């Protein structure tokens, strides 16, 4: 919403963190600038075998539409993730379609006929698996505490400042989530808990771009054959009520810009409205797939990035919020430079 | 993400709040069912003069694309709203265009050339006007307290229940906002404050569909000629940094489903990508405009609806969240029945 020319000028200037000579105000890097300055070792490679690559039929102009989904790592949702690997291996989604696009909610895909036979060997997962214990959390937390201290002296968090800005050791936003008692990041993923200690049960959160498993009424938990991606304000009321199995890391716009369905819940009413899925494969079966990496959520740069998202001090802003919700701190993911 | 056939069956059954005979579990109405049962007097009419009706060029199939925006009422942003009325009266947007579509963020429109002369008489608004005092709030709150008590006995909040569900008099979500100390609704709009008493300064929140005013770097606050609508997860870090002047109440899908721009910040790079705005007029200048109304946010039905959004107990859900963020409780707006 900033006007075009001014912003571009401003962004170019900021890339070098200039100190405005006339008033000696501190100039803070923006969140993208912090990410751009993160060290190579702060990025974590995503294994191609943890990607689901979905090629839709080309658009009206013949342009390819590829959607790349990162599958969620252990300990979350691994029963459904295992099913998804089997469905991809069986080429089950080939020839199925996008069947539902509901504005400010989800895009959903799978077999519109609901009659396609599933491959053998899929497991039925329990509702208890909507959340998971994090045994390793306590160690990760100790490590992060140290890194948070270290970053006080690091290049990333100390652009040329005149006045020191106090940051809370644990920003208030962690404990001010309306849907949970605490929110955080774990191995690159946004998570939440209803308890107050590190040993609690945690679950992934329904942020923009997250991918989940369609299901019928409880106790059904879905197989993973019917999937959806979030394309609106985070529907966090679905947390713990439905399995999250991944997130779209590239090509989400091919889903979010589709025409909205006019039937109930945004289902398409006519067959010709449905976009065909030409193929869906695990990443290690795709020859030309670029490598992807995410900014490690236990890195100093991620902590600085999250702080900057919660306290915008770059020049456009006049009043930092002092907090952010977990879905307003999207984990940076990018193609790895060759 | 629920499977199509099951949900439709289920929704049809729920419309009569049946009590399942076999296990006598309580059956709770869903948020849309609560809204559908609200009394006629709980709805507030929206004056046509408070609407900005924007007709885009028809889509590729020749289908009309009308976007209806409700302008925000006093005490919020009235300097910019006044400018918008003048711009509409001057037909200033006619022939301008949608220039930017950034995924999970905003759609922005206005004069792509940035050279079109503005009408005379526009005011320059101060940054102080990003938030406002609510003198009447205290009375409204007392009224709501009474209504909250009344609703215990009302038809809307008491579907046939077997076990009483305890609701907090003030649900925790009001005070668990990561961007503010308190969030609430006022005259149909989501608002937030940084203080802890009713006399504080409040501001509207950047929820999905909200419309704001593009600006250059501070101290510029924008005129209202350059507008944007939120089409992603609520960018609440913009609250108090930019003026909110309304919300899209119909036709948002004509903006949110546009192709994403490929330039920086989602700006379209080629002129032919831009969708033209054929006209933008205040609602009282449109002959065939339907009447709109919103569910009064100080009504008992709205309180029950907000509680249900924060504590989903309808049959699909197994774990109610116990809270919701302010943007996850969208204010119901509909065409008024003739």
Describe it.
Chains A, B: Keywords: Isomerase, Signal. Chains A, B: It comes from Sphingorhabdus buctiana. The structure is a homodimer of 338-residue chains. Chain A has 338 residues and is of the alpha+beta class. Chain A contains 6 helices and 15 strands. Chain A has helices spanning 4-14, 31-36, 78-89, 137-150, 253-256, 300-310; strands spanning 43-46, 51-56, 65-71, 97-101, 106-110, 132-133, 182-186, 189-193, 201-204, 210-213, 227-230, 244-250, 275-282, 292-295, 333-335. In chain A, the strands form 3 sheets. The first copy, chain A, has an 8-stranded antiparallel barrel. In chain A, strands 6-9-8-7 form a 4-stranded antiparallel beta sheet, with no helix packed on it. Chains A and B meet through α1 and β4 of A and α1 and β4 of B.
Secondary structure elements and pairings:
The structure is a homodimer of 338-residue chains.
Chain A (H helix, E strand, L loop, with lengths): L3 H11 L16 H6 L6 E4 L4 E6 L8 E7 L6 H12 L7 E5 L4 E5 L21 E2 L3 H14 L31 E5 L2 E5 L7 E4 L5 E4 L13 E4 L13 E7 L2 H4 L18 E8 L9 E4 L4 H11 L22 E3 L3
| Quaternary structure annotation | homodimer
Helix content of chain A: 10-25%
Shape of chain A: globular
Poorly predicted regions of chain A are 4-22, 155-169
Question: What is the class of the domain at 44-111 and 122-163 and 172-293 in chain A in the CATH system?
Answer: Mainly Beta
The greatest interface here is: A-B, 78 and 78 residues
Per DSSP E runs of 2 or more residues, the count of β-strands of chain A stands at: 15
- Helix segment tally of chain A: 6
**How large a portion of the residues of chain A is in β-strands, by DSSP E?**
15-25%
CATH topology group of the domain at 44-111 and 122-163 and 172-293 in chain A: Cyclophilin
CATH architectural designation of the domain at 44-111 and 122-163 and 172-293 in chain A: Beta Barrel
Sequence of secondary-structure elements of chain A? HHEEEHEEEHEEEEEEHEEHE
Q: Structural class of the helices, strands and pairings of chain A?
A: alpha+beta
Q: What's the gyration radius of chain A in Å?
A: 21 Å
| The CATH H-level homologous superfamily of the domain at 44-111 and 122-163 and 172-293 in chain A | Cyclophilin-like
Strand order of the largest sheet of chain A: 2-3-12-10-11-5-4-13
- Tell me about the largest β-sheet of chain A: 8 strands, antiparallel, barrel
Note the gap between the termini of chain A.
34 Å
Mean pLDDT of chain A: 85
